[in-house]
Write the structure tokens for this entry.
Amino acid sequence: MTDSKTPSNRRKFLRNITQVMGGVGGIFALIPFLSTMSPSEKAKSAGAPVEIDISSMTPGTYKVVEWRGKPVWVVRRTQDMIDNTLEDNEILSDPKSLEDHQPAYTQNKFRSIDPEFLVLVGVCTHLGCSPLYKPSSNSTELGIDWQGGFFCPCHGSKFDLSGRVHAAMPAPYNLEVPPHHFASNTKIIIGDDGDNI
Ligand code: FES
């Protein structure tokens, strides 16, 4: 029998109606959410450049901004961090940042446009965990030759304070430096190389 009024067909009919209404309700629930996003938020989620104000950053501090759904770190180095950054070091896998996926302005020991400011995508190049910022060279928690840097707890990859990966780590290459430029002494634009290319 195919009559929709039989108990089992009526149950199916009601279940289908409920599913359709649920879907429609979901769509209507989404529209107010999308319409409340400002034009700049929509552009940001689509990957537009983001601006970060560095005027209040003191040496040793860092800030996190979101760009293309990923965390981007800006670290203001201390004079000690600058002085202790080695040009080359046998514990590093690619100390000169020669792997071709990195912007040309990373090919210096600071991997920075300005040695005082490091800009990195905070995503491990192994399987995408977010490494921890461990700047202290006095800590032996990560080995006696730890000079400060970033540590990924997922599978143990270590990076120096320029985001250069140590040799023989699960992570295959250095932390990514996103395209960026200084719009002024107090503003960095993430997501746009400016005149740096
Ligand atoms: S995801 Fe970082 S070491 Fe595996």
Observations:
- The pocket of FE2/S2 (inorganic) cluster is lined by residues 124, 126-129, 152, 154-157, 170-171 (CB under 6 Å).
- The first helix runs from residue 7 to 35.
